[in-house]
Design brief:
By secondary structure, the protein is an alpha/beta fold. It has six helices and 13 strands. The strands form three sheets. A six-stranded mixed sheet has the order 5-6-9-10-12-11.
Length: 248
Amino acid sequence: MALYAIGDLHLHYQSTLKSRRQMTERVWKNHEEKLRRNCEALLTPEDTLVLVGDHSWGRKLSECEEDLRFITDLPGRKILTRGNHDMFWDAGKTGELNRLFEGKLEFLQGGFARYGDYALVATKGACFEGPFYLDRRGRILGWDEENAEQARKLVTREAERLRAGLEEAKAAGCRKLLIFLHYPPTSILEEESVFTRLAEEYGAEQLVYAHIHGETRYGDSILGDFRGTRYSLVSGDYLKWQPLKLLD
């Protein structure tokens, strides 16, 4: 039994492709088949795959049926967390999705799932992404204060959801914790955040995130060990569509 993770599949079997990056960058060409082959080579039926947000470009569940069927057909247990582009998924209706896909897929948002002795705690997360004002050398001179204030509100909401999930796991007797966010835990202006402080406070062994695309952006947030937690980026294009093993 092993635990793997990957994010940002951005499937579009029934919907319009909305990303220029997916249309032009080589790493995205036939990425669905690359992922399928890699999963079939790596995963067994006893393994668990956490898909860290942005599963489909479909806006309604009816536009995501084939995308979710593709995920269902991958080997092992599949746990989906919520991304910023998952418009089919209302956070308040996560229970309905779990009932609809019972025995096929698990949808995790603001709570936790068990993996052996571990609690997998997930929420979408948030961070400030600009716009930033740059000089000719690309150095940041300032940023949009209105957008920054809105981002702070979202960060506060998502941090509350994460704390609630961590408390729920703790109350259930779980002492080994992994955190999954879709957004990176820090913005490019931060060296730490409320999310890193929560990981440290609760002793999370790992914090896994996605959302970041493109070689120039992969280092925008924390990678590797930081204050007792291992931080991993699992965006599909970053991993070249090979899920990352988190635990044996």
